Amino acid sequence: MTDFASRALLPAGFADLLPPEAGFEAATVERLMSAFAAQGYVRVKPPLLEFEESLLGGSGAAMARHSFRLMDPVSQRMLALRPDMTLQVARIAAVRLGGEPRPLRLCYAGQVVRVTGDALRSARQFGQIGCELIGSASVAADVEAVQLAASSLVDIGARGLSVDLSSPTLVGAIIEGTGLAGDQAALLRNALDRKDAAAVATHGGEAAAMLGLLLRESGDAARALAALRTAGLPPRATEDARRLEEVVATLGARRPDLAVTVDLVENRGFEYHTGLCFTLFARGVRGELGRGGRYLAGGDFAAGGGEAATGFTLYTDTILRALPSPEPARRVFVPMDAPASTGEALRGAGWATLAALAVHDDTIAEARRLGCSHAWIAGTIHTLGE
Q1: Which of 15, 52, 115, 207 has the largest count of CB atoms under 10 Å?
Q2: Are 135 and 205 in contact (CB under 8 A)?
Q3: Taking a C-beta distance cutoff of 8 angstroms, is the pair 287, 121 a contact?
Q4: Listed range (2-6, 50-54, 89-93, 112-116) with the worst mean pLDDT
Q5: Integer Cα distance of 233 and 301 in angstroms
Q6: Is residue 359 domain-shared with residue 280, that is, in the same domain?
Q7: CA atoms in the 13 A half-sphere facing the CB of 377
Q8: H or E element, residue 290
């Protein structure tokens, strides 16, 4: 391997995004951000790095294992490279925009970096696009977050979309309500994460029958909600069940085209969430298009502080796989001897122009070599065939 080739190697989980995918990603991000702005969400732009104690304190502690750290030579304090943008936006809402009227609607787009990938996403750097609705604990806010995420994806061309609803606090309420704790509770949670019905029966104690029922009936929304009604839930879990039922009913009325499923025992990946959550999928597309849910903005989940908030994050790498391939760019090659006004006129008409930097004997051949779809010849646009 040459020295130049070795310098082109990238760490595992990092990649260059080349044409036309890089342009397609940028255009997709802007289409989504425009859709969010049209519904009252205003854009914020948090930094890539923050002080470790700020980014990973409170609710952010759940993301600590995903975060790269480094020493800041200026302040001599530890910094963390953001593994997720949601908590940064929550900080902005609590501190910089603390005096703004609630509910506060914010949106964002940017890159995040994580220490490791996972089974569904091996990339360690990827794009996030999202919205946060801060200052409302209402069911209407939950519905708005789910509906905005789904509608924006459908509007840019995603097909076969489905949303999987869950309530990560439901399992905790059941475990607490039946008196399980310590190692037994940890084993039970692990069994539920693996969807291992036999292990749930073994470690579930008094909660085994109830959680076994919820595990079996997860999936179809109507069946899952019917199971919740007959499960004999402890008091603290009934609010989660009521909210799930109301959100399903409202979504069904507003977006009957949206396939809705319910996972009654899901918890993985929702480390700092405090209520109803959701994950978005597209038929035939590997991985999640996005996820979101309730959390405490600017507070600590364990301590119970912060504002009620909900929101979602969409992942650009998965979204691009769910969209139809973009139309080839309309690029017209403009010879060097064309009038100076030609390029301006073409661009004003919606063309992308590629200006010649030398005189060429065969304009069409040069246009093809440079990947143009058209060429300007003697005052006329010529379409280039294969």
Answers
A1: 207
A2: no
A3: yes
A4: 2-6
A5: 23
A6: no
A7: 13
A8: strand 290-297
